[in-house]
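ok so I'm stuck.
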Amino acid sequence: MRKSFLAAFLLLTGLAFGQAVPLFAAGSGEPTVMIQGFHWTSWKTAPWWGEVGKRAGELSRAGIDLVWLPPSSDSLAPEGYMPRKLELLDSSYGTAAQLNSAVKALHSSGIRVIADIVANHRVGVKGWADFAAPAWSPDSVCSDDEWGQGAGAPDTGKGFHAARDIDHTKRYVQDFYKSWLPGLKSSPGYDGWRYDYARGFAPAYLLAYNRASAPSFAVAEIWDDFDLNNTDAHRQASADWLDSVNGEIKVFDFTTKGVLQAAVSSGEYWRLSDASGRPSGLIGWWPENSVTFIDNHDTGPSPGGKLKDKAWPFPSDKVMTGYAYILTHPGVPCVYWPHFFDWGLKDPISALIKIRRGAGITSSSSVGIMKAEQGLYAAVIDGKVAVRLGDKMWSPGPGWKTAAEGPGYSVWVR
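replied:
not stuck anymore, here's the structure
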């Protein structure tokens, strides 16, 4: 939908391809800067809730105002993504009481907190599907699940082989999520949600749960196969999903990650501009609903350099170049915890956040791309911040002051 609308806009306005094209008015978006408050092996630091809570003041001073926490329900897997007893909030990350304390500490520092919600699948207590807390019958499992004994309807989305795919057409399943999520807002006090594996069931159900819980912030994981030679198809799939939920739930901008990662790896910065002169990720079409990021618990390393199978890490020597892009551009930027606390990048990341906040850059700020070529990307955001990426020299001209710089990037303010 957005693609066709913007194409018509360009034709009507007569803007030529390759020009700087600011499409969204400054000031109409939100200023949120978030951090993923964990990594794949955070559970080994017990209680992790205490680790997050004690960092509340530090995060707030850095300009971060939203923290995404890992799944807090009891889980077969310590990372939390194999939920067992949904109603039990004692997990490998700590007790329910410790979670409450962490949320309270974050709130006291002016930071909102979103929970990682795994609604697509569950595991049993001892067997394949002996569900407890809440107890559900076999008709809550999709008929085409690997278990072979699911008595529910066929799956309405993609299957998940490691656990039972839940049948969201069942009214009692729907009723549970419509009451459970609002309950989590009361205790431990979550403000919103990150929806795991949102391709796993039809978006209409997720939209219903989201509306029932009225979060202040919600974002879904829409992680499709990425083809560097067909990036428009990738961001179109994200835009289509956003259309299906009426734009009421944001999505992680995997397109921007893929394009930016390829650009910094080889100096092919021309990849950061599409044929119409817009950012080539989802932020070029629907920035206010795009959550940009460099790495997360699935794609990047945990402390010690550990990677999951099939990880997709950002080049380690180009991470700050990546942050110079997402922290100066529209979308809602999400910082990765290990980068901030374990890689010694807290100060340069904080400097970029300070620039973003000082200039009033928001999720829908306008972008004028000045250069996008081999070895160089340059852009001006809202007419207030200029950024250069790459190994070629570029300057925005007189009237600008250098505000931050490092290997592969420079940032100026008026």
